[in-house]
Please model this.
Amino acid sequence: MPIVKINGVEIEVPAGTNMIDAAAKAGFDIPHYCYHPHLSIAGNCRMCTCEIEAGGRGLEIACNMQARDGLAIRTDSPQVKAVRRNVMEFLLKNHPLDCPICDQSGECRLQDYYMEHGQYESRLADPKVGKHKRMDIGDHLVLDAERCIACSRCVRFGDEVTGTGELRLFNRTDHTEIGIFPGERISHAYQGNLADICPVGAITSKDFRFEKRVWYLDETDSVCTGCATGCNIRVCHQQGQVFRYMPRRNDAVNKSWMCDHGRLGWQDIASLRRVLRARIDGKQAELSEGIRAAAAALRGVDASSVAFVLGTRATNEANWALWKVARANLPQAGVYWCQGNDPGAWSQVDDLLMDADKNPNRAGARALADHDAAIGDGTDLAHAVREGKVRMLVVLHDDVLGRLEDAAEGVAVLHLGSQRNTTADKARIVLPATHPTEQDGTFTNRAGRVQRIRRALPAAGDALPDWQLVELLGAALGKGPGARDAATAFKLLAGEVKAFAGMTYKDLGGGGLPLRQPEPLPSPPPAQPAAP
Amino acid sequence: MTVPALRHERTFVERLYLPEIVKGLYITLRHALKNLFEQDLPTIEYPDVRKPMPERYKGAHRLTTRPDGKVKCVACMCCAQVCPAKCITIQAGEDPNDPIEKYPVEFQIDMLRCIYCGYCVEACPKDAIRMDTGIYEINAFTRQDMVHNKAYMTDLMDGHKPLAETFYRQQAGSAPKGYDTDEQRVLPVDGSRGL
Model:
């Protein structure tokens, strides 16, 4: 691997690494607009210009400079600083400076770099070149061509990632503006990424438009629960309210992207379909009453006619806890995991990120089933229900009744979930669980990668985290799994189930870890490489 | 270190007592007569008369308007951001017919929390908020009424009406006994109907 020298610091990087990444590794931040780690090199913003000390000469752009032995660059010489200042002056020449009404304000590279590298007196004598404002270019996007700095990131995204190529740079020199062909409209399912990668406020999101100034938002790292891909996200929230999801870079899963459906997943959190209180026989009840009633109901029937169904939408911790509760208190009861999508789930699928399986933790439930051969799958459950062996179902999140269709008529149901669905509506007892943004835990994505979700919001209503609800149910039955918090639950799970062996929340970190014995999921769909 | 107090040794005339009493009564009478006949007094008969406030006095906030009557504010949140008391709440919205795309749907200042530092005025890039109304009587009977909203702060533009008047007129019949809401009794803030 070549050794390069950056500002006198020697660092070894893989061959082919560009100097922006190499400098970042050495601890130096090289300003850039057009460079994006998951797009091709365009080299048109010239902001990352660096001075070559050895292994070449003059000034060169760092994004297009590949690491090679003997290369030494300087990112802070007077010449480099002068270049950055002049580049900034050109970029801002026709910029409207409407920061007060621009949604990018606060996370805008023009603002950041002006404060860091620009800071010049305006020499502008002529009027600025006017361009198109507030163009409706897609269902989720607004384009303001005046704010554009023509970095071409969005053009490359359309060409290279989605392959749709709607956006182009039109006209020349300072009349250059980004736009779409007449009559065209961006219609792909990855529009939000265009707003994310735009380093300025030219492309902004319609869904987030004027909702909140970004500097008020707190960010919590989490995982999208829209489908089995498990895109890494940042939950942007303030005072218990979520304003947007943003993709978080994870090269093993979603690179820097996420789909628009997942991006709007936060709308479930405060939706009218949330389960906020316990319900017994259709009547609202205290949570403690609900748990007592649930335990009484479970004790009241023959243990062999009870079926526990692990949730493909519940965390690994909760599934493990439910399995433990079943085994410890009702050893004769059946435990199942039920594959398939809930009726009414969104159906879009592609080979980029959107998986056919719309449950975030199917692989996790399956890993448990692999650990305990006695755990049956959905077919076994359907059989048992049809044969009338099941008198009582304990369901975690999933719409099991919806998936089994009419087979389960007359079966008493105990539902632990956050959203209303057919199962929750027909259930005898409903206990409120939290939304994934309101609890700690882990999900296992389609490729078998265990990833952390983190609590961003306080729980709504009486809801409790999945694992805690199961824990309390176990305690009411006689014996709970004995976890005090999500981390302990995961530790106990990791100590018991081989696929998770040795993992802790600390190890999982931001990017997650693959299951110890990665088992490819059966089709549909065939396991895809995570991103294009 | 102690400093010995300077003691005034009383003279013989002072020690006689009565001349000093007469002297004191004379001073009192002199001031009484002066006040009776002279008009240029520092005392103001508030609330019948109100003192004109200095131009830079920081009174109640108002929202300035553009010639077409819309507020100048573009809901950039600079004031809400800089406010040390965190008393400004703005809800932004989009105006599809306005080239200035953003406007405040609602703009509220909690006057109970406001500390009148004037940072909001300084921070505003659009000169949309000012504290030049000269209004210092900021009071209400409920906490809710102490939250000034966009409509109220925009109206303050016209004629600099005293707050109490506007307030009591909005809430007819809620004025406490003794507080006259009759328009004739309400005086302009500059005190032009003074003595």
About this structure: The first strand of chain A starts at residue 3 and ends at 6.
